[in-house]
Amino acid sequence: YSWVFASGYSGLGRVSLELPKAVAGTFTVKLYCRASSAVPGGSYSVSLQGKKVLDGLDPGEGGAAGVVHKLSGIKLGSSLDLVFSPSPGKEAGLPLGCGVELIYEGE
Hints:
By secondary structure, this protein is mainly beta. The protein contains no helices and seven strands. It has strands at 14-18, 25-34, 44-48, 51-57, 67-76, 79-86, 96-106. Strands 1-6-3-4 form a four-stranded antiparallel sheet, with no helix packed on it. The protein has a three-stranded antiparallel sheet with strand order 5-2-7, with no helix packed on it. The two termini are 27 Å apart. The model has no long low-confidence stretch (mean pLDDT 82).
């Protein structure tokens, strides 16, 4: 999956995806992120479906290779709502958003 980190969206704050009703159920959500080379430092949190699921993450954790945050057992209906927020006092901390992968676990 190294090709996923070849590009990314800088300053990504929110991602909303509409999902076909036929796939509603439980998913593993993988978030592919890497540090922005232009803005080092900072930290961020991730909220999924309105609930904070990851906090105090370092955007440089995976270096140029990036990092995959894996969240299992996530219930999704008709949409996915994902929010990246800089930690207080760490506004430079948002990562490059490189990809989102949804893996269906079942109903």
